[in-house]
């Protein structure tokens, strides 16, 4: 049987920026496609909502459903200041969901690249630390790191930094594991079993796993941010 | 032994290491199955709260899967992007 396992990792174009060699890879192309799709959806929904009717049509219904359901989730996790963070949470929810589901349409998901999930986790990390500093001040933050016993200061410090690492690695590992398994399936088996059976693999690995990982990412970001807000 | 080059030895031990790293998959398997059992018992006790119980259980299981994923990431790095090859 043929042995062409294709992980779809190619470098397309070699640029030369500031003296370093940078490649334009599959991740850039797929992320461009996903972002263009989201921009087109955004412009369409914007135009449709300007003539919003009381009895909604299809696009207005879906947009209102999305915003209402996710606003409810943000409100139930962040109790009072939910309005300030609802924009951020809904945006990254939509981006990560679209990225994870793009595996069904033949793209390599952009979140299967650690260089995409790490900045997302660092953005949440920045929000968490900013809120911690703003609520307590610098001295109060240092004091909260020595909270139960001053001997636990290094462990508390490490657990602060473990948050973005675990957020990014969870998303990266799940999606990348899915792409590796599907690439092995499509690369190593004869053509007969590739015709109807991979549907179940795609449903589990792309749709189910992708949706759960977006929900977990956003839920954990909300819980960690709400932990540091003033009561 | 025969002619085992240095490069071959590094590659062989990387392959063994990748297999050993996947032993970390035992933990999430046991923990998540245990949590699913508790979730099923909770639904049996309170069938009206099935949606809340299901989403809480899925959230907890996705967080508990993280350490198994750390093992998978190490195994994938050793197989496909091995940093130890050029170091000799």
Commentary on this structure:
The complex is a heterodimer of chains A (231) and B (88). Chain A is mainly alpha-helical and 231 residues long. In chain A, 71% of the residues lie in helices and 6% in strands. The termini of chain A are far apart. The mean pLDDT of chain A is 86. Chain B has 88 residues and is mostly helical. Chain B is built from 4 helices and no strands. In chain B, 75% of the residues lie in helices and 0% in strands. The interface between A and B is medium-sized, with 15 and 12 residues.
- Whole-angstrom Rg of chain B: 20 Å
Q: Specify the helix fraction band of chain A.
A: over 70%
The gross shape of chain A turns out to be globular
> What share of the residues of chain B does DSSP label as strand, in percent?
under 5%
Largest beta sheet: strand ordering of chain A:
1-2
Largest interface, C-beta closer than 8 angstroms, per-chain residues: A-B, 15 and 12 residues
Query: Mind describing the biggest β-sheet of chain B?
Result: none
The counted number of beta strands of chain A is 2
* Assembly state (oligomeric): heterodimer
Query: What is the overall shape of chain B?
Result: rod-shaped
- What is the succession of H and E elements of chain B? HHHH
Largest sheet of chain A: 2 strands, antiparallel
Rg of chain A over CA atoms, rounded to whole Å, is 21 Å
Cα-to-Cα separation, first versus last residue of chain A: 63 Å
Helix content of chain B: over 70%
So, CATH architecture of chain B? Up-down Bundle
Q: How many DSSP-defined strands of chain B?
A: 0
């Amino acid at each position: 049987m043929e042995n062409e396992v294709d992980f779809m990792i190619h470098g397309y174009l070699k640029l030369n920026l500031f003296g370093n060699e940078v490649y334009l890879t599959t991740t850039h192309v797929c992320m461009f496609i996903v972002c263009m799709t989201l921009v087109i959806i955004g412009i369409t929904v914007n135009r449709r909502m300007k003539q919003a009717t009381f009895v909604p049509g299809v696009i207005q219904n879906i947009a209102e459903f999305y915003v209402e359901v996710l606003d409810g989730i943000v409100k139930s996790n962040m109790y009072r200041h939910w309005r300030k963070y609802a924009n951020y949470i809904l945006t990254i929810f939509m981006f990560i969901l679209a990225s994870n589901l793009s595996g069904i349409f033949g793209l390599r998901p952009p979140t299967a690249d650690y260089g995409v999930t790490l900045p997302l986790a660092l953005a949440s990390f920045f929000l968490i630390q900013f809120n911690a500093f703003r609520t307590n001040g610098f001295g109060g933050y240092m004091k909260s790191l020595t909270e139960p016993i001053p001997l636990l200061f290094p462990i508390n410090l490490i657990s602060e930094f473990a948050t973005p690492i675990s957020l990014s690695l969870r998303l990266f590992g799940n999606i990348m594991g899915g792409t590796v398994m599907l690439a092995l399936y499509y690369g190593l088996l004869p053509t007969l079993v590739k015709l109807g059976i991979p549907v179940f693999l795609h449903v589990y690995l792309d749709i189910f796993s992708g949706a759960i990982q977006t929900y977990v990412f956003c839920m954990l970001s909300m819980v960690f941010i709400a932990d540091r807000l003033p009561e | 032994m025969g002619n085992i080059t240095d490069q071959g030895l590094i590659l062989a031990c990387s392959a063994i290491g990748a297999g050993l790293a996947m032993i970390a998959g035992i933990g999430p398997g046991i923990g998540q199955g245990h949590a699913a059992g508790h979730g099923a018992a909770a639904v049996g006790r309170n069938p009206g709260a099935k949606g809340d119980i299901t989403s809480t259980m899925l959230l907890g299981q996705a967080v508990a899967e993280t350490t198994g994923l750390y093992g998978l990431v190490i195994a994938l790095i050793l197989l496909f992007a091995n940093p130890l090859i050029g170091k000799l």
